[in-house]
Amino acid sequence: MPITAVHTDPEALTLTVIADFTVPLARLWDAYADPRQIERFWGPPGYPATFLRHDVAPGGRSQYRMTGPDGDAHGGYWEWTAVDAPHSFEVRDGFAGEDGTPNTELPSMRMVFSFVETALGSRVTTVTHFGSLAELEQLQQMGMEDGMRAAMAQIDDVVADLTSFAAGQGTELQRLGDTRARVSRIVRGSVEQVWQAHTDPALLRRWQLGPDGWSMPVCEVSTEVGARLRSEWQSDDSGERFGFAGEVVEAVRPTRFVTTERMISPQDPEGLESPQTLNELTLTPVEGGTLVAYVITYPDAEIREQILATGMVDGMESGFARLEAEVLAG
What we know:
The protein has about 325 residues and is of the alpha+beta class. It has an 8-stranded antiparallel sheet. The protein has helices at about 25-35, 35-40, 135-140, 145-150, 155-160, 190-200, 200-205, 300-310, 310-330; strands at about 5-10, 15-20, 50-55, 60-65, 75-85, 90-95, 110-115, 120-130, 170-175, 180-185, 215-220, 230-235, 240-250, 255-265, 275-285, 290-295. The chain has 9 helices and 16 strands. The protein is about 25% helix and about 40% strand. The chain folds into 2 domains: about 5-160, Alpha-D-Glucose-1,6-Bisphosphate, Chain A, domain 4; about 170-330, Alpha-D-Glucose-1,6-Bisphosphate, Chain A, domain 4 (2-Layer Sandwich), CATH 3.30.530. The two termini are about 45 Å apart.
């Protein structure tokens, strides 16, 4: 059991939880920064969490939902107000509806997470600040303290897993609900380097080449919201051509890049007959490099499975390997 102390202060309107671990500080920090890891313990047993968004940066946002054994869902969000990696971060934590909209009928809380090295490993101290005594008592009655104890008891197993989330594990696919998928990989490079590699046409042409024997004659990229994007690949032998088009929805350098995407071809040059996806790219510094996470929203489950069956994830792994070897190496 990692929790070593819990203290409620009605005068300061705070709930403090201290937990100790026998792992290095960076390993514990990554458990909170990596959506693949935090969703393994943020919900209590029987109510696993799924993080649909997780921006570890000031001004960022996290969106999650916890699903019970009977299928009942409980949503939540974080608004990130401060980050000092790997020492601390601060969020506004609240309840949310199924679509992620904040539930204003329930109180939100300011939470400060502090990470320090100890003689045996590392410690995280979580201080929750409430707006009033009534809010503190309301959330205690809702089982907040017991829920935190049960949830944090699961962190030991997560941080003890030194291989599943380490650099070098390749590209991972996770299905999120019925219409989303998360594709993630740790890339050996800084966040700024990886951002540049995703937004500079000259760099994209060096690593995002598609199948062997194909070139990238068209690469139109921008980080201006509303700007159009277009990438086309061509077979060096047959001249066969395909590509993708879309536009920029959101860009926060160097951590978040959101675009739409639809497939184009000579027969459908604007992609009007193709389904459109929403691609949310998040870059997070972790031990070993940068966690690259794409959360892709498809029109429906059938289209998601059709696109995943094309070998998309294997193609992305080939691109990421080329990115490390030919763009970021040295």
